[in-house]
Amino acid sequence: MIESSSIPRRTFLKGLGTALALPLLDAMLPRLGFPGNGLTGTAFSAVTGGAAKAAPNRLAFLYVPNGIHMEAWTPSAVGADFELPPTLAALKPLKDQLLVLSGLTQDKARPNGDGPGDHARAAAAFLTGVQPLKTHGANIRAGISIDQIVAEKTGMWTMLPSLELGCDRGMVSGDCDSGYSCAYSANISWKTESLPMAKEINPRVVFERLFSSGSKGEAEESRLRRERYRRSILDFVLDDAARLKKKLGSTDRRKLDEYLGAVREIEGRIERAERSQDEPQAPMQGVAKPDGTPKDYQEHIRLLCDLLVLAFQADITRVSTFMLANEGSNRSYPFAGVPEGHHDLSHHGGKPEKQERIQKINHFHVTQLEYFLKKLQSIKEGDGTLLDNSMIIFGSGISDGNRHNHDELPVLLAGKGGGTIETGRHVRYPRDTPLNNLYLSLLVRMEVQAEKLGDSTGRLPQLFTQPRLF
Asked: Residue 279 burial (CB < 10 Å; 0-12/13-18/19+)?
């Protein structure tokens, strides 16, 4: 094996229209000074006690609509000695990687004089902490979301500054909630106060974005050739991969094979989903060709989760948002025993049978989170795992869907933030503690200096391991 110093972190396997970024290999570890890895930021150094860190932190926000059945969500005990309640029980194998955070509020999702429209405000304010302007016209206005603040800093080091995902299409106009534009209900990521970041729902499009060379002509030629000859994207980089393997030790060769295997497996699942959309149907005039998104909702979520894992693993991006459904979604969940619409059920009126069905929907969403976290945890990175070097927020901008309240929000934080977050606990904060205080606390872990974010009043205590910066 040649000296590991000859393997830069920014190594790509290249072919026609293809640039396949690589995961962090042991051969790259001596090069600890790659840009944006947490070694140069004085704030991060203070957090970690100056310890060298080979891998960057990643940040993701997974959003679910219509609130949660909180009685089955909130642990009864605080601290490390707590039991996961029924809705969170699927996360038991990951308990030591979790922080359940209670008492957090997104005040700017409240009416504050603007009347009804809680669903639109819940999504628009979730990552901004800014009151959205009540309008269904083109003059939409919210605030810059935390993910885009991070993207502005970390995007200079990655191929994609950020990655916005979702399972429901979004509209940028129209009245979706009591006088609020559909743009508010369909987006949690905002680049500017008037520009939401459109999310991508088609796994094929996401796949091509992650592994395209950046040259539109070459990328399109590569895609057409693969479709024509039913070839994998990996077929275009095999020669490059073979040359690289000669430079690697046995452990790195295994890591590379596992990574390429994961890429091929996801590519195959995308192709199967596309074929299922092309099944013969009776022709219908005026009906557009299916867009290639999976018919199976769970497979749709998991494909996007797997693509996000690859994006984090290969350092293609370090920040992402994922809306599992648009706010106010009335999607039904017959596969989970819930044929009724989610939004309709959320107005449960205190009826136990409706609350039980809401819990089933909540449980389904949590099991998708479990899938995502286990994938992150399964990938070794340096002395830890990809999950150890991540901060994953899962939650909703509404607490109880019947009350439409925005205090006592359901919020989970998973991952250790590069070893700086003390997980395995339920932490309760005083009532009406701004949710943006959490985000302000996470920014420093992404090497972003900020003293204010939306309606934040300071950084959250009780989150971090020693030595603490705050």
From this structure: exposed
Which H or E run contains 412? strand 411-414
Please tell me the total number of residues recorded for the chain in this structure: 470
3-state secondary structure of 190: strand
Count the helices and strands in the chain (H runs, E runs): 12, 17
Within a domain: 297: no
Beta strand 384-385 with 380-381 is: antiparallel
CA dihedral 246, 251, 256, 261 (to 10 degrees): 130
Helix (H) or strand (E) holding 184: helix 182-185
State the pLDDT at residue 88: 98
57-80 pLDDT, tens digit each: 999 999 999 999 999 999 999 999
| DSSP sequence for 249-275 | -HHHHHHHHHHHHHHHHHHHHHHHHHH
Strands 332-333 and 319-323: unpaired
**Nearest CA among 375, 379, 373, 407 for reference residue 393:** 373
Residue 163: in which H helix or E strand, if any?
strand 163-166
Contacts of 450 (CB under 8 A, 6+ apart): 149, 440, 443
* Domain CATH code at residue 420: 3.40.720.10
pLDDT in tens, 386-402: 999 999 999 999 999 99
Question: In which element (H, E) is residue 375 found?
Answer: helix 352-378
Q: For residue 116, is it left (φ>0), alpha (ψ between -120 and 50) or beta?
A: beta
**Are 157 and 173 contained in the same domain?**
yes
User: Range of 10's domain?
Assistant: 1-31+206-279+286-292
Question: CB–CB of 329/343 below 8 Å?
Answer: yes
Structure tokens at 59: 């940040």
